[in-house]
Amino acid sequence: MSSDVIEGRTAASADALAAEPVKRLGLRAYLVCFRGIVWREVLRFLHQRERFLSALVRPLVWLFIFAAGFRQVLGVSIIPPYESYVLYEVFVTPGLVGMIQLFNAMQSSLSMVYDRETGAMRTLLVSPFPRSFLLSSKLVGGVAVSILQVYVFLAIAYFWEIEPPRIGYLTVLPALILSGLMLGSLALFMSSVIRQLENFAGVMNFVIFPMFFASSALYPLWRIRESSPLLYEICRLNPFTHAVELIRFALYGQVDWTSLAIVVGCTVLFLGAAIFAYNPSKGLIARRGGPGGG
Amino acid sequence: MSQSASAAVAAGEASSAALRVSGVSHKFGEKTALDDVSLEVPRGTFTVLLGLNGAGKSTLFALITRLYDNVTGEIRILGHDVRRAPTLALQRLGVVFQSRTLDTDLSLAQNLSYHAALHGIPAGEARRRCREALETVALADRANERVRALSGGQARRVEIARSLLHRPNLLLLDEPTVGLDIGSREGVLGIVRSLVATRGLGVLWATHLIDEIAPDDRIVLLHKGRVLYTGDVPGMLAASGAKDLRVAFRIMTGTASEAEAA
Predict the structure, then answer these.
(1) Does residue B178 sit in the same domain as residue B233?
(2) In a domain, A1, yes or no
(3) How far is CA A3 from CA A36, B9, B75, B83, B223, in A?
(4) Selection from B125, B130, B129 nearest residue B108 by Cα
(5) Residue A192 pLDDT grade (very low, low, confident, very high; cuts 50, 70, 90)
(6) In terms of residue numbers, what domain contains B245?
(7) B120 and A32: CB-CB below 8 Å?
(8) Same domain membership, residue B159 and residue B109
(9) B218-223 and B226-232 as β-strands: parallel, antiparallel, unpaired?
(10) What share of chain B is helix, strand, coil (3-state, %, to 5)?
(11) Residue B262 lies in a domain
(12) pLDDT at position A57 over 50
């Protein structure tokens, strides 16, 4: 509109009035922003002791109590990646690692819905960086927190005689990053679609429980097939199953290629959907109306 | 960006208002939230966006901050179209949202450096700016305390400090004094007014409280999604034929003013 008029103006008058010269956001600025967002997630987590504690107690209760009781009922035969008969605790550990990441993702999704209403999400979104970059950075922050939790859990589990090969602790890291990204982007998408969340119970009932129980986290899939072929098919379609299998194999230094492909595919799909949903012109927030619920 | 291009941008900014909204309408489904809204915030002015709850103030803020895009009309911050050049526009914009947006478990300094990072300001520079910004709002000595320990008014001042870190030209404040006692309200108002005077910021201050308006402020009266009046205080009195702003507000909007309660 006014761009034709301004060309004729002198630079001197511009200097006098512009408070800050126009700056391009270079690669360094992107790194600063990325690090800032991830660091905030980690700091927030470390400062919320109760959250740290409950994130840790949940899988440990499963491991110490549920698994101890269950091992008498369920024998696990030799299936890859295990090379011998394993105790039920050993089998269930990757599933519990998946559970930590699932809970963490859903909790951060919940906090984002809450953030959107209180305005912390809007503070993030008025940053001049592209929105897809901001959301991805936030996602990575959540994944970093979940990986912290997983390693503390694995360290405690080690003393409970869950001792995967040393190298497993290293090879599981990329698997954790991928599964964390997949679950996190699913949660990110959910946070844009869910308008209001009164409490965690809704997410528990409709997302966490179905995803967790209809998966290979608690029992091997061949066992499920014996009892219900339909449930078996559902479990195979559940992306969480593949996140767990990816973690299970990686913990023993192996790659489950099918699961890897599915986890990567789902991540791309969910993240794409989330970025679309947060897009200011096409997104779901605009259609659902109301600025942050108000 | 080349040298000449950036000079052109700077020159463009020099000739533009801090904020210019022209012909913006917005609907949520069938409900019209904003109906052909136009307004301008010149630099170095304190402009009050006056309206009752539900007048459309928050929707307008959501559009200016690009939570979602305006479908009709145009919003320009320092000449930059918010929809077409969001990066440049958002670099010029500082916001204080109505709801509290600080992390209460983190310190003031941590909150501010997070925000600096969101604008790509490197750590060393960020530390310097945080100190300056906290000095501006007289909270420099509490930088390492947790936000939880602050009063409502102090937290608001931190949010103002935060909104200044990237040195914006336009400052939006959405009902920033809600829930504050009289002393804190005056403190917050005083800080923002002095920013207008000393730094030449353009400020858009949304409120429903008539007694926050000073005699030389500019007023944009928003009611049920429409702008009923833009101009200065004497103009509003003259247009409505009233003696004080409260009555003027009531005549213009045709309501028993909620603002009277304040």
Answers:
(1) yes
(2) no
(3) 35, 9, 15, 16, 33
(4) B130
(5) confident
(6) 24-92+169-262
(7) yes
(8) yes
(9) antiparallel
(10) 45, 25, 35
(11) yes
(12) yes
> Both B80 and B107 in a single domain?
no
| Nearest CB partner across the interface for A47, out of B8, B83, B105 | B105
**B5 compared with B35, residue with greater pLDDT:** B35
With CA atoms as reference, the chain B residue closest to A9 would be B11
Q: Chain-wide mean pLDDT for chain B? A: 90
Q: How far apart are CA A222 and CA B194, in angstroms?
A: 72
Domain assignment present for A269: yes
Inspect the interface and report whether the beta carbons of A128 and B31 lie closer than 8 Å.
Answer: no
Taking one residue from A and the other from B, the number of pairs with CB-CB distance under 8 angstroms is 174
More confident residue, B102 or A279: B102
- Counting the structural domains of chain B, the total is 2
Q: How many residues does chain B have?
A: 262
Shared domain for B161 and B178, answered yes or no, is no
The CATH number for B36's domain is 3.40.50.300
Residues B240 and B118 in one domain: no
Residue A68 structural domain: 24-281
Enter the pTM of the model. 0.85
A162 found inside a domain: yes
Tokens of A26: 């270079």
Predicted confidence (pLDDT) at residue A290 exceeds the cutoff of 60: no
B67 closest CB neighbour out of A15, A25, A122: A122
Q: What is the pLDDT of residue B259?
A: 47
In a domain, B36, yes or no: yes
B12 three-state secondary structure: helix
What is the Cα–Cα distance from B160 to B158, expressed in whole angstroms? 5
Contact residues, B window 84-103, toward A, CB-based 8 Å cutoff? 86-88, 90-91, 93, 95, 97-101, 103
Say if residue B224 is in the same domain as residue B245: yes
B95 vs B73: CA distance, rounded Å = 22
Q: Return the minimum-mean-pLDDT range out of A13-22, A159-168, B69-78, B192-201.
A: A13-22
CA A190, CA A184: separation in Å to the nearest integer? Answer: 10
Partner-chain contact B28 A7, CB within 8 Å: no
B120:A28 CB<8 A: yes
Residue among B83, B95, B120 minimizing CB distance to A126:
B95
> Quick one: pLDDT at residue A18?
41
